[in-house]
Fold this sequence. Notes:
By secondary structure, this protein is mainly alpha-helical. The protein folds into 2 domains: 1-24 and 42-84; 95-144. The protein is 79% helix and 3% strand. The protein contains 4 helices and 2 strands. The protein has helices at residues 2-27, 40-44, 48-82, 96-143; strands spanning 88-89, 92-93. The protein has a two-stranded antiparallel ribbon. The mean pLDDT is 83.
Amino acid sequence: xxxxxxxxxxxxxxxxxxxxxxxxxxxxxxxxxxxxxxxxxxxxxxxxxxxxxxxxxxxxxxxxxxxxxxxxxxxxxxxxxxxxxxxxxxxxxxxxxxxxxxxxxxxxxxxxxxxxxxxxxxxxxxxxxxxxxxxxxxxxxxxx
Length: 144
């Protein structure tokens, strides 16, 4: 098991490093437009290293935001699947008493539905008994 993990991890790591290098090389600017009257920003961005670093920064920020979003959605789905209540999200927090009240209400309605199912089952048995009694009476009336 450990050996197959190494066989998978090594090529995957090599592919990721190669992709990162290709991305870094692809982001390097080739031509810089010349400006007849350069402003302060034109002077700053007249250097290929500055443009390359700013492009890397933007791509890195986009990657961090994308992975963060995927992590948040995946962890929320897993918590929902496990039945965990979301009690805190950033600065917002649900108090324990409110969460306990909600859980208590859910338990109340669950118990009530079970009681109603039992009552329905009892009424169904009584109805079947009544149907049998009516059938017997009909056969007795028809025989006379």
